[in-house]
Amino acid sequence: MTAGAIPKRILLVTGLSGAGKSTALRTLEDIGWEVVDNLPLSLLEHLLSTPLGKGSNRRRRPLAIGIDSRTRDFDARRVVGQIKTLSDDHEFPVETLFFDCAGSELLRRYSETRRRHPLAPDRPATDGIAAERELMEPIRRWADHVIDTTDTAPNALQQQIRQRFGSASDAPTLTVMSFGFSRGLPRSADTVFDMRFLRNPYWIDSLRDLTGLDAEVGAYVAGDEAYEGAVGRIEDLLLTLLPRYSEEGKSYVTVAFGCTGGRHRSVHVAERVAARLREAGFSPTVEHRDLTSRPHAAVEASATSSRSEGRRNQVSE
C-alpha cells in the first residue's frame, strides 16, 4: 500500500445491533469522515490500497468502516487478527470503536421499532441479543474505545462522537449577514437581530449615500447611547449560543442583523460582531445582502408609484 493511499485515520466501528453503530457512522460522515458500512472483510485490504481518481484528496480523509454480525464472512477473531496485521504493517494504526448496551435496553429498542434481531429472525429478540453478545466478545475485549449507550439518547451519542472524533474544523459554517426589513427577512437566517432601535444615518444628508462600511457612518451609529450596551450583549449571547449549535451538530448557522434599508446600521453592526467572533476563534463569513440596493426612500417611492399606477389602471378599466 502506498503512503498516499492511506487515510489520515482508520476507525473500525462495530458493536451490538441496536447499540448505536448506525448513529455513529452518520455522525462521522457529517463531520467529514469517509464512511463504508458492512464491507466484507475480504475486501478491507483492497479498499485501503485502492486510490481514488487523479487529483482527488478525499483519500486523506479519516476512514470509518462499519462491520457487525451481519457482515459477510464475519468472524470476530479474524477481525482482531486483521486489525493487528494492518496496525503492524502500515503507517496509521487501525482503531476500534465498539458499541455496547444492556440487554434489557436493546430489547426495549427492538420492541419499539418492531425490528427483528439479525441473529434471531424467527426467534425472540432475547435469543439474538445473547448470541450476538457472545459472538462479539473478542472484539469488545480488543477495542480501543467502548461506548455503552444503555442510558444515552441518540442526540447525546452524536455529541460524544463529535467530541471524541471531531476537530476544530468541524464547527458549523458561520455566516453573519446584514439585510433590510423593507426587502424581507432572509430565509436562511437562524437568528435575527433588529437594529432599527439605533439612530438612522439615512436622515443625515452627508451620510445618506454612504454605507455601514464607511467610518463616518460607523461613528454615527456607535454614538447612539443604546449602541454599546445592546451590541455588547448580543455579542455575549452569540458567544454562548454558537458552541451549543456546534454541539447539536448544526452544519450551517446564519446570524442576521436587519435595519430599514440594509445599508447603514445593520451593515456596521454585522461587521463589528463578525470581528468580535473572529477574536473569539470563530471564522464567520460576512454577507451584506442589500448593501448595493437603492436607498430605502427610493424603494418606497417606487412602490408608492407602482401602487398608484395600479389604482389608476383599475379605475380606467
In short:
With 317 residues, the protein is an alpha/beta fold. It has helices at residues 21-30, 44-49, 76-89, 103-113, 125-142, 154-165, 215-222, 227-247, 265-279, 296-316, and strands at residues 10-15, 34-37, 63-66, 94-100, 145-148, 173-180, 191-194, 252-259, 285-288. Mean pLDDT is 82; it is low at 297-317.
Secondary structure: elements and pairs:
Layout: E1 10-15, H1 21-30, E2 34-37, H2 44-49, E3 63-66, H3 76-89, E4 94-100, H4 103-113, H5 125-142, E5 145-148, H6 154-165, E6 173-180, E7 191-194, H7 215-222, H8 227-247, E8 252-259, H9 265-279, E9 285-288, H10 296-316
Parallel strand pairs: 1-3, 1-4, 2-3, 4-5, 6-8, 6-9, 7-8
Helix pairs in contact: 1-6, 3-5, 4-5, 8-9
Kindly describe this structure:
This protein is of the alpha/beta class. It has 2 domains: 3-169, 3-Layer(aba) Sandwich (Rossmann fold); 171-295, no CATH class. It has helices spanning 21-30, 44-49, 76-89, 103-113, 125-142, 154-165, 215-222, 227-247, 265-279, 296-316; strands at residues 10-15, 34-37, 63-66, 94-100, 145-148, 173-180, 191-194, 252-259, 285-288. The strands form 2 sheets. Strands 2-3-1-4-5 form a 5-stranded parallel beta sheet, with helices on both faces. Strands 7-8-6-9 form a 4-stranded parallel beta sheet, covered by helices on one side. α3 (76-89) runs parallel beside α5 and α8 (227-247) crosses α9. The longest helix has 21 residues, at 227-247. The model is unreliable at 297-317 (pLDDT under 50).
